[in-house]
Amino acid sequence: MAELITVDDPDDPRLSDYIGLTDVELRRRREPAEGLFIAEGEKVIRRARQTGYEMRSMLLSAKWVDVMRDVIDEVPAPVYAVAPELAERVTGYHVHRGALASMQRKPLPAADELLATARRVVVMESVNDHTNIGAIFRSAAALGMDAVLLSPDCADPLYRRSVKVSMGAVFSVPYARLEAWPKGLEAVREAGFRLLALTPDAKATSIDEAAPHRLERVALMLGAEGDGLSTRALMAADEWVRIPMAHGVDSLNVGAAAAVAFYAVATGRPES
């Protein structure tokens, strides 16, 4: 059973995991180095626990203590009960969902481990917007993608905003980082995947014509919002594919495009 501790000092060192949650640069450096990430909201906290993440501590406003009572009774980690005003002073923002948990990260698998069993893989290049990362993971989970591979410069999927937007889907879809880019794509191809680069370029094949759902193994490559995939990444692909547009619209937000493309990749695929 967790120990419930009332804290009224924003400088209490026991709250250090929660300091400056809106400072992206600070958290980007600190969280991976210290092996932690922040889960926000009751549903996300529960999902993190259900998928095997260990809790370091929990920060709750008073009215959330009863809601989270079963979790408090199950975990050995300390639970800090604080006033909403104190939570805001510590974290840097109004904690609308009233519940935060500091969770212990798991070691990331190697890319080749994921490729050995996956059939439908997402490959992201330089996607640094945390909202987009979260949206892509949520769609990947919902639409049956098996794994995600990240270029070395992609944002952290376990950053608080990504976790929140994904509704915890970042815990469900296994992911790994490719150590070199775009050289790491060679290992994806060697594992039997056809590399499809999603691009609005007019020279690309319509994704309907490419029929990725008929392929045995597909790796769908996505680039950052605005810039899209780099020239190097496009040149490393086996085929360029595009989503047909209407009414003069040239492209979709990468999160929306990912969802459409994932549906095309997964729909009608043969059973394992």
TrEMBL record:
Record-linked InterPro entries: Alpha/beta_knot_MTases, Ribosomal_eL30-like_sf, rRNA_Methyltransferase, SpoU_MeTrfase, tRNA_m1G_MTases_N
Keyword field: Methyltransferase, Transferase
GO molecular function: methyltransferase activity
Residue ranges of every copy of the tRNA/rRNA methyltransferase SpoU type domain listed in the record: 121-263
Pfam families the record matches: SpoU_methylase
SUPFAM superfamilies associated with the record: alpha/beta knot, L30e-like
Coiled coil spans: none
One example of a Gene Ontology biological process annotation: methylation
UniProt-listed PANTHER family: RRNA METHYLASE, RRNA METHYLTRANSFERASE 3
Protein name per UniProt: RNA methyltransferase
Organism of provenance: Streptomyces filamentosus
